[in-house]
Amino acid sequence: MDYGYIRVAAAVPDLKVADCKYNAGRIIYLVNEAVKNNVQVIAFPELSITGYTCADLFHQHLLLDNAEQQLGEILNITQNTQIIIIVGLPVRADSQLFNCAVVLQAGKILGAIPKTYIPNYSEFYEERWFASSVNAISDSIVFCNQNVPFGPNILFKDGKFCFGVEICEDLWVPIPPSSFHCLHGANVIFNPSASNEVIVKNEYRKELVKQQSARCMAGYVYVSAGGGESTTDVVFAGHAIIAENGSVLSESKRFCESEQLIINEIDIDRLASDRQKATSFMGLMGSNINLNRNYKVVNCHLKNADIRSLHRKVDPHPFVPRGNSERDQRCEEIFSIQVGGLAKRISHTGSETAVIGISGGLDSTLALLVTVKTFDRLNMDRKNIIGITMPGFGTTGRTYHNALNLMKSLGVTVREINIKDACMQHFKDIGHDPGICDVTYENTQARERTQILMDIANKEKGLVIGTGDLSELALGWATYNGDHMSMYAVNSGIPKTLVRFLVQWVAENLVDESSRETLLDILDTPVSPELLPANEKGEIDQKTEDIVGPYELHDFFLYQVVRFGFKPAKVLFLAEIAFKDKYSTKIIKKWLKVFYRRFFTQQFKRSCLPDGPKVGSINLSPRGDWRMPSDASYRLWMDELENI
Fold first, then answer.
1. Are 357 and 449 in contact (CB under 8 A)?
2. Catalytic pick from 100, 168, 216, 300?
3. pTM
4. Residue 300 falls in the annotated catalytic set
5. Kind of pairing, strands 219-224 and 413-416?
6. N or C: which end of the chain has fewer CB within 10 A?
7. Which among 20, 54, 115, 605 is annotated as catalytic?
8. Is 168 a catalytic residue?
């Protein structure tokens, strides 16, 4: 597997009911199209060789014999390809007729899986023709002159890739067979189906696929019969879905007149990471509940797909929701989580005030907005929020005035404490030349500001509200025992790329025109700690992203590394796709090295973080989400990058 991906396809062929030769021809055509696209596994609809709506024709020996003959034709024509093919047809066994999905590869039948749950209600009459898998006696049959494994509990495996099959109605029951398949090792499920259309059924069907893929932490490839099956009182639309752990990767167009082939990649590594972290996934296997279904594992051999590009979208900004509507909903929810966490802390401690340093930058702006809304929720006077601007050696007029204007427009108490004299005294005390603008020069200012905030909080019976964000914590871009410390860190779960959208959302939805104008200018200001002197024009000269790299790259790295544990080679591969029009491979690799170095060497700062609300799947709190030795070596990760 290239980077842990399996390339799969769901095919909706043109079909003529009871014309097995025609149907086999269309299956072979779409198989060849899939081969051209480096597909490794392709699935066709339920009973795709005969057609699903044959009704009493299923009792005609000629139809059944011809279906088997045409399967033989498919086997013969595809014997020189390595693609795994899943097709449907009726199979006779144990004096019964079974609705089966047959798995083929390179001219060999790997297995035949009979349908378990046979619908016999409303427009469905399958029990008239087909037996359930529970009635099967044999565990192997002779079919197309081959000895074939037969039964519902067959898994097909090649290395890390393992798949199972369930058929249509099997998905609609309280505990689908795929649940057991996945507990016994399957990480991808294929579902050949023939689900007809009625109003909004497609939405329910799609939710079933999404939910089952999420519960099973699996890939799920669903393919339903197309319009060729439409007859008498039922209409089919060719609904195909490729999903992965609750997300739809690809979906066909329903009611399409032409054949369809949807292709995407299932990330086996990602699924393995999710299952490994979720220790409850296999929780029942050691219980007294009988989950042993006597599974048979059939070995298969995946063709080499040589995956160098992906059909699936690689989001360059994984923390930022797509689309304005979804983004607004997500921002409202995140903001509410921040407010809820701070409200609890203030109520619990009986604090009378909140103290917050306001720099005129994005992080402190978001923290102030959260604090204001928290006080509104608790019916506390905004004047009990003490906003303090503390100009230093690098403070520019733009950020200074934005800080003052924002505090005034929001109605909080405004204080200004210039830290220059205190810092100069400190330089004198420790024997530091103020003309040397090194880390001592910078961190002195950060620690002086934190000392002021802490002491005023003590004096005013309040809490210091932290402003640092998740991205800064990942990179260690914070002064230890300076801005690194607070009494409650409201932004600790918010990555830098999301901070901007949260501030934008507040500006558009929650504040008056005066505050909105200031917020928009803050959004337009370069990210900087402003600890070094401004340039000759009085503008920000110290830009964070020039030093540590673009935050959009680091947030992307953080998501892939912490959420999924991907190797550096895969992270680089994904970043190349996500940022192909913006950054070269050389630039991405450069900043990825910076990320790993800083992420490993700065863990000691994360090991003693103050409390703060968790808002997403990525969090670096040492009390729950991220526990890492402060002195772990990053050599393995750097070596892999160097060898790429």
1. yes
2. 168
3. 0.91
4. no
5. unpaired
6. C
7. 115
8. yes
